[in-house]
Amino acid sequence: MTVILLRHGRSSSNTAHVLAGRSEGVDLDDKGREQAAELSDRLGDLPIRAVVSSPLLRCRRTIEPLAERLGVEPVVDERLSEVDYGEWTGRKIAELTKEPLWAVVQAHPSAAEFPGGEGLAQVQTRAVAAVRDHDRRLAEQHGAGALWLACTHGDVIKAVVADALALHLDNFQRISADPASMSVISYTRLRPFVLHVNHTGARLTSALTAPAGQDGETPPGDAVVGGSTD
């Protein structure tokens, strides 16, 4: 199974440099709406079997045009929601950089717990569980080679990609997930294969190649010795 992790389009909080978190009513700005409208073209004719989304408005708005084109009803999963930043929610980023916890979030995020909110380690646990649960469910429905999309948030995507790369969470800040970017992970029985990270180009198709070990000559889930055969 292959999942496209889509970050929501640019929001009003992104441009205001405010940590939106789970604030109600944070919508896409004009650029974000353009990004949502362009999503179908970026995905082209890729056979997406299902769309899963964070419950927050900016994610639901991002996938609306795509879901309508595909004729699918998005599945909402709370586990893909934004980090609960607690008392940090709604504050200016410039203010937060002066907090002692900011340095922990940057250098030792596995130990970071937001006051009145959740820890980044908890975020990774719930998000990875959600992705793997949907992956198994959709494999049963559509077969092991099916493609699906999950629309969520920057830190959530970075945490899932870090897990797929077998990176310690303390290294997840090395991963980028820009607004409307797509990161692609193929899950096999033995391991995940990260096919693309932070794709912001016009078409995603070129980033979606068969994961290593799926060419019919190597066992499923095995990596090709010496690198890709392409």
Automatic annotation (TrEMBL):
Q: Which GO terms describe its molecular function?
A: fructose-2,6-bisphosphate 2-phosphatase activity
Q: Does the keyword Hydrolase apply?
A: yes
Q: Which UniProt keywords apply?
A: Hydrolase
InterPro entries listed in its UniProt record: His_Pase_superF_clade-1, His_PPase_superfam, Phosphoglycerate_Mutase, Phosphomutase_MSMEG4193_put
Matching entries from Pfam families are given as:
His_Phos_1 (PF00300)
Q: Which GO terms describe its cellular component?
A: cytosol
Region Disordered: which residues?
A: 208-230
The record's annotation in Gene3D superfamilies points to: Phosphoglycerate mutase-like
Q: Does the keyword Secreted apply?
A: no
Question: What's the domain of life for this entry?
Answer: Bacteria
Query: What is one GO biological process annotated to this record?
Result: negative regulation of glycolytic process
* PANTHER family for this protein: FRUCTOSE-2,6-BISPHOSPHATASE TIGAR (PTHR46517)
Query: What protein does this entry describe?
Result: Phosphoglycerate mutase
Query: What organism does the record attribute this protein to?
Result: Mycobacterium fragae
